């Protein structure tokens, strides 16, 4: 948002300052040209006021010209000349110089070039006037008087003005952009604070957005807090309902089992019912495990994996003590599972127990974090290797189906890996079944991605 606003403000400011500079530049150039004409007209009138006409029709210029440069031979920058009926006069500065061609003007006619005229002395601005000079009552002389000045004078003025103008406009633009940036940073500071607080909630470092926010953002933060509390309340109510359901179902199943064990039911019927009760018990356990999987939660607290994994493996090593299987660890202490405790224990429990069942002697549990974007919660990689017979690639898909076991002689119901798959999908993750490069058996690899 800040970048877009700065871009729009910068483009608007650039357009405004550009148009302003262009307008001021044109206005100054026009004013400088007008000043040039006024200056030449002043020189011309001063010359005419101090000039006399001899009986021989020769002009007698004043001893002191309007500007000393008129009296300096060479490229002085100011030049004067007069042409008329048998009359030709030049100022000392124009002597021997080829000035722009001069025309004979009628009385009172003014000639202004408006644009620089090329000449031997370089581009010049020139102003001329037609004059009718009465020498006597019966005699008058008509001539034209021209005054010219080098165009470099106006050009230097415009160049100096342009440099000054763009330096000041550029400085003003940078200053305005800096002020605009500070204003936007100050204005958007509460929104950035909301983003930081929300990221803390996502990482589990805070339960709610508990900062002090402006009135405009209070509605947003209050609704977010309400959503977080509603999600947690709904999950808690859902779990309580599942616990009640589990208790309600397990109690009648236990009663049925006890009646079957009492011997009151005929043997053939007892075997059938016993089989169906066992199947119902497995289905209840599986469906409750699936329903209890909460899946991806944006505001889940981080759970430490290392301690829970060690406790779980200690129990499995006791159960499989006769096989002599032991588990090695490659656990990163910083790895965290952002989800529910039950989901983590299902993942670790099913994967490690499956490895213990098939391993000959060694199991390797690997856990490491997966870094995400800055400020976002990381993901986690959980991998379990064993030194068992492994799983052929063509059997992987069938093995992951619910109720299918790799070997019917191995105890179990064939739903553990299916539960793992459901949990992984709920967390938008991925599970791979590979060949273990370290131990030679199977490798079950679960990837829970970082938060988006």
Automatic annotation (TrEMBL):
UniProt keyword annotation of Oxidoreductase present: no
Database matches in Pfam families: HATPase_c (PF02518)
GO molecular function: ATP binding; phosphorelay sensor kinase activity
Span of domain Histidine kinase: 244-452
SMART domains found in the cross-reference section: HATPase_c
InterPro entries: HAMP_dom, HATPase_C_sf, HATPase_dom, His_kinase_dom, HisK_dim/P_dom, HisK_dim/P_sf, PhoQ/CarS-like_HATPase, Sig_transdc_His_kin-like_C
The UniProt record lists the keyword ATP-binding: yes
Name assigned to this protein: histidine kinase
Source organism of this protein record: Pseudomarimonas arenosa
């Amino acid at each position: 948002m800040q970048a877009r606003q700065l871009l729009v403000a910068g483009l608007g400011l650039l357009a405004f300052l550009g148009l302003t500079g262009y307008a001021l530049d044109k206005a100054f150039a026009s004013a400088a040209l007008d000043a040039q004409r006024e200056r030449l007209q002043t020189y011309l009138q001063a010359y005419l006021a101090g000039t006399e006409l001899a009986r021989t029709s020769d002009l007698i210029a004043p001893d002191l010209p309007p500007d000393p440069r008129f009296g300096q031979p060479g490229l002085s920058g100011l030049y004067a000349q007069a042409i008329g009926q048998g009359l030709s006069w030049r100022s000392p500065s124009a002597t021997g110089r080829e000035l722009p061609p001069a025309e004979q003007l009628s009385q009172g006619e003014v000639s202004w070039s408006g644009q620089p005229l090329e000449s031997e002395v370089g581009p010049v601005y020139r102003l001329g006037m037609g004059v009718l000079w009465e020498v006597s009552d019966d005699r008058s002389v008509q001539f034209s008087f021209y005054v010219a000045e080098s165009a470099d004078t106006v050009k230097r003025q415009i160049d100096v003005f342009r440099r000054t103008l763009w330096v000041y406009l550029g400085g003003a633009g940078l200053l305005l952009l800096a002020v605009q940036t500070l204003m936007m940073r100050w204005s958007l500071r509460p929104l950035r604070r909301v983003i930081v607080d929300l990221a803390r909630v996502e990482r589990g470092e805070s339960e709610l957005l508990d900062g002090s926010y402006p009135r405009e953002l209070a509605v947003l933060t209050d609704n977010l807090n309400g959503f977080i509390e509603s999600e947690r309340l709904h999950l808690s109510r859902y779990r309580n309902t599942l616990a009640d359901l589990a208790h309600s179902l397990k109690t009648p199943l236990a009663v049925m089992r006890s009646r079957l064990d009492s011997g009151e039911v005929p043997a053939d019927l007892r075997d059938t019912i016993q089989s169906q009760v066992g199947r119902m018990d497995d289905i209840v356990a599986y469906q409750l495990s699936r329903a209890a999987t909460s899946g991806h939660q944006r505001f889940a607290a981080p759970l430490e994996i290392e301690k829970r994994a060690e406790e779980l493996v200690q129990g499995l090593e006791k159960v499989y003590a006769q096989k002599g299987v032991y588990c090695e660890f490659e656990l990163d202490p910083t790895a965290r599972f952002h989800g529910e405790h039950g989901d983590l224990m299902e993942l670790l429990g099913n994967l490690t127990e499956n490895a213990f069942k098939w391993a000959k002697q060694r199991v390797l549990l690997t856990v490491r974090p997966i870094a995400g974007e800055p400020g976002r919660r990381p993901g986690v990689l959980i991998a379990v290797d064993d030194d068992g017979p492994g799983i052929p690639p063509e059997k992987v898909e069938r093995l992951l189906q619910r109720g299918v076991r790799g070997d019917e002689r191995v105890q179990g119901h064939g739903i553990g890996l299916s539960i793992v798959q459901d949990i992984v999908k709920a967390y938008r993750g991925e599970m791979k079944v590979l060949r273990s490069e370290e131990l030679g058996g199977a490798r079950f690899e679960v990837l829970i991605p970082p938060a988006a």
